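Internal ticket #5521
Category: modeling
Description: The requester needs a full-assembly model to guide mutagenesis choices. All entity lines are attached below as received. Residue total reported by intake: 450.
Assigned to: D.W.
Attached entities:
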Amino acid sequence: MKIATNGTMFKTTKSPEEIINLFNTKEIDNDWSFVGYKLSDTGKWTHNYHRYPAKFIPQLVEKLIDEYVPHKEAYVNDPFMGCGTTVVTSISRGFKASGTDINKIAYLITKVKSTPIEPLYLNKKIDQLLSKLKFLNETQIALFNDKIEPLIPEKHIDRINYWFSEKTKNDLGKILRVIYNEEDEIVRDFFLVAFSHILKNCSLWLQDSTKPTRDLKKNSVNPYEVFQKHLKKMQSGNDVFYNVVPTKVKENLHEYLNIKVGDARSQSVSDNSVDLIVTSSPYVTSYEYADLHQLSTIWLDLADNLTEYKKQFIGTSYKKYENKRLRSSIAMDVVDKMFKKSKKMAKEIEAFFIDMEEVFDESFRILKHGGRCCYVIGNTKLRGIEIPNAEIFAESLQYSGFKLDRIIKREIPSKILPQKRDEKTGRFASNNEADVEAYPIEYIIIGLTE
Ligand SMILES: C[S@@+](CC[C@H](N)C(=O)[O-])C[C@H]1O[C@@H](n2cnc3c(N)ncnc32)[C@H](O)[C@@H]1O
């Protein structure tokens, strides 16, 4: 019988020392590296609709589903769905899928990526949209034909002016105006995802950088051309995805898809309902997702107050707790070590692991008896102190009621998922900016409910 979650009341099956030893002796499992896959494989179907920091590859989700969901019907969940890799994969199999993300742009991307659109209909809609905007590509005619009032969110005008040239800003505003005139919400959202994706290319944001850095020498691009090209790419992805998704799912998508903007610690998912959780969590003070997606957030007007918005993210440096206690002793040890170097960072790390312990409780609540959760996570270093995220997750899962079922150690081929960190800040950087490789290795920590 699955027992209700009740923190430290659980007898752990593995002590912290045993867990550390287990990780020290763990060999890399080459079956989980997916070395032979190309970008066309990892970006198949709708997976290349939108860039997303630290997204994982669909092949990893597919393999976990193959190993742990032998039945034809299943319910898969991702509490940190990001751009929806788990959700899209589950929908493609004809499974029910649910997920949450506190990031509003993540919700929009996942919704669009997991909603197949009838190809001929979509083709017609794209042609109509592009014909209304074609004048943006024809400079002379534009002077006469241009009656479209740009839609530029005034509230965020300072940020928009910081990132975009005057001409680009106006062209984008016109594209956005025409997109919002589309009456079919599904198609409109599809266009919005294309629009959101091209914002980085059209802005002064250093193209190779995940972090918000300006490149004042960046070559300007024609927003219409980039938008058109990306829409066509998305259209090809949709055509394939449409044929992959089973008809029963396409016809009753609302019964199969339950995604929300929300907190991973309290999902709107019933108790004992889910067969498998596949997820990758945020990292402590690594990505400030709200900052990284600020171009989309300001153009699509997704947050009134960016500072308040940021506080809701797990792993943010804007958080600390005074009256909550950690359960994991490996985590406590890390916090103690960090306390001697930086009290602020020690508090952030403590808050991160407390939040994650609450997420594990929630995973335990929603899983069926015999269900599994799979947390993909790498270890890192902050201010010279090792942060053994994987060991801490393994220990903490037990306090939420899980039996530690399996640990997979995998290499991440950098062609598929380049992940590097800046040694000073601990933050992610692109390959040519980074000092140290952060995750040449990562782990899949699998907990079982018994
Ligand atoms: C590593 S990413 C997940 C990427 C995802 N596996 C994919 O393939 O796109 C972690 C996600 O956690 C989200 N997140 C951060 N705090 C959250 C919270 N409190 N509740 C739910 N999601 C949160 C971030 O917005 C981010 O999308």
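Resolution: model delivered.
Comment from assignee: The chain has a mean pLDDT of 90.
Ticket closed.
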